[in-house]
Amino acid sequence: MTERSVTHATFVVERTYAASPARVFAAWAEPTTKRRWFGGDQPPTEFDLDFRVGGREINRGVGPDGRTYTYEARYQDIVPDQRIVYAYDMYLGDTRISVSLGTVQIEPADTGTRLVYTEQGAFLDGLDTPDAREHGTRELLDALGAVLESQSWGVVIFPVTENVARTARHTSFYLACGPAEGTPLILLHGWPELSISWRHQLACFAHLGFRAIAPDMRGYGRSSVYPRYEDYALEHVVADMLELLDSLGRDRAIWVGHDWGSPVVWSIASHFPQRCFGVANLCVPYLAGGFAPGNLLPLIDRDVYPEAEFPVGQWDYQLFYEQDFDKARSDFEANVANTVKALFRKGNPAGRHKPSRSAFVRSQGGWFGAAAQAPDRPLDTDVITEPEFRAYVAALERTGFFGPNAWYMNHARNVAFAAQSVNNGRINLPVLFLHGLYDYTCETVDSRLAEPMRTDCTDLVEVVVPSGHWMAQEQPIEVNAALARWLATRFADLWPGTSFTAADRALVQL
Questions:
Q1: From CA 73, how far away is CA 57, in angstroms rounded?
Q2: How many whole angstroms separate alpha carbon 318 and alpha carbon 302?
Q3: How much is the pLDDT for 44?
Q4: Distance CA 50, CA 56 (A)
Q5: Whole-angstrom Cα distance, residue 87 to residue 456?
Q6: Radius of gyration of the chain (CA)
Q7: Phi and psi (nearest 5°) for 119?
Q8: How far apart are CA 21 and CA 112, in angstroms?
Q9: What does the DSSP assignment read for 151-177?
Q10: Helix or strand or coil: residue 306?
Q11: Is the peptide bond before 192 cis (omega within 30 degrees of 0)?
């Protein structure tokens, strides 16, 4: 039996960094940067940072001895650019080996920033020691210095920060990157994703001068989750996004959507054009009457989906949610890790002109047939890598698939909401649409699915991207290039510090 004991100790470690207090603070606050230096040489097997007072951080990984160590912290006090106070536990396997209070003090120094770290710890049962903890802390703070140095080549670095917008009716968690005064570029994810789906776009457009924002949508991640189908109707989601824009202190934004995020963006543009500079959408085109099966069926490519065999074409899967919602949910939740690996896969050029797997869902008794759960497939790292995989799995295991799937249970409500649009549903704003060449559910290249959009959007630019459905993650360079070109040609005066003449615009368009 382990001999019970407690050793109390306090130690202080000081470092001076050739970086501003704001950059040093951001290295603790911004998840992507912190995971680069905090936790040792091996990447963590689990990492989550909710950087706010009362927020939690977890960092789990395998140490040099092959054993699993877990760091669990709760933030007690945060003063931006000055102070961070947190309490944390360390575990070896399932055994708590220490409890500590850590205080980070940040202050300007002649050569940059002076950081003073103080830890007051209780080290339990001889399983950890103050000397070992102090040694490890010194190594971590040296690793922080190396990360700061790698960022100090005279390049402006905007951290991706975690934020929360709260109102009496809804809470939206969101990622933000870029200058606070920049034009808001708000990126809305779809099913079953998270704000991190836009990780390739956040920094890109931040460094072009925009304030890039990516929320967790209603029912996902750290935003509010609701218990009823009708809570996920588009009317409510649009209200969430307008409240988010209000919380930024801005009247208008450039809105970008993907998958279910696209109908949200289309709805904002068609109901509240005064809150938009312009809109861009990936994969899902505009239908003025509402994105619902009744409006999709007349546009099915009957060469690929003969009506006798595929009466509802590739939209069969949407009807399965209405037919057996509980089974759809339970199959996805049976093994969330396998579900994520099965869903997030790049497009296959060989699938063109062939039926999508989404056309067989009801006949097979569910997305995964008789197995009633996703198969174990290798992770497709061309779409998501291990950190994103872990983040998706952790979030979907926590919230479940009720909310994500409930978005499909509001077709009638969404059609009724579409009927309330202004200008008879016609969108006169600048619009960009990105077609996925290898997206065989939202197939817009060969079918008629995009035709209503061409009629109802008066200032439309279209780009075909050689990608499957998860376009922003699979082909970020092509997506970012298309967005940047559209922004430069349609919104030259929104770029910071620019004033374009007609001749300038003509040159940009060449």
A1: 5
A2: 18
A3: 79
A4: 5
A5: 56
A6: 25
A7: -125, 130
A8: 7
A9: T-SS---PPPEEEEEE-SS-EEEEEEE
A10: coil
A11: yes
- Asked whether the beta carbons of 242 and 275 are under 8 A apart, the reply is yes
Contact 46, 59 (CB under 8 A): yes
Distance CA 97, CA 260 (A): 45
CA dist list (Å): 121 to 138, 298, 437, 504 = 16, 67, 57, 62
Gap between the Cα atoms of 433 and 402, Å rounded: 29
Q: Using alpha carbons, select from 484, 478, 494 the residue that is nearest to residue 179.
A: 494
pTM: 0.74
Q: What is the pLDDT of residue 155?
A: 56
Residue 496's pLDDT is what? Answer: 66
pLDDT at 316: 98
Please list the ranges in the chain whose pLDDT falls under 70: 1-2, 39-43, 64, 151-157, 496-510
Whether the Cβ atoms of residue 112 and residue 18 lie closer than 8 Å to each other: yes
Q: Which residues contact 503 (CB under 8 A, 6 or more apart)?
A: none
CB 468 within 8 A of CB 462: no
193 neighbors 259 (Cβ within 8 angstroms) = yes
Q: In Å, how far from its chain's centre is CA 278? A: 21
**Residues 47 and 35: beta-carbon distance below 8 Å:** yes
Answer for the pair 414, 292: CB distance below 8 angstroms, yes or no. yes
Structure tokens at 464: 């075909």
Give the span between the Cα atoms of 25 and 79, in whole angstroms: 10
The phi, psi pair for 121, rounded to 5°, reads -125, 150
Q: What is the full DSSP assignment across 115-140?
A: EEEEEEEEEETTSS-HHHHHHHHHHH
Calpha distance 449→461 (Å, rounded): 16
- With vertex at residue 220, the alpha carbon angle to CA 412 and CA 52, rounded to the nearest 5 degrees, is 140
Q: How many angstroms separate the CA atoms of 227 and 326, rounded? A: 14
Residue 497, pLDDT score: 56
Residue 183 and residue 245 in contact, taking contact as beta carbons nearer than 8 Å:
no
Beta strands at 161-166 and 184-188: parallel, antiparallel or unpaired = unpaired
Residues 447 and 283: their CA atoms lie apart, in Å, by 13
Query: Buried b vs exposed e over 97-128: b needs ≥16 C-beta within 10 Å?
Result: bbebebbbbbeeeeebbbbebebebebbeeeb
CA dist 400 to 57, 73, 254, 395, Å?
21, 24, 30, 8
Q: For residues 269 and 263, what is the distance between their CA atoms, to the nearest angstrom?
A: 10
The CB density around residue 96, as the number of other CB atoms within 10 Å, is 16
Task: Specify the amino acid at residue 170.
Answer: H
β pairing state of 95-109 and 83-92: antiparallel
DSSP H stretches of helix in 347-475: 386-399, 402-406, 411-418, 451-456, 471-474
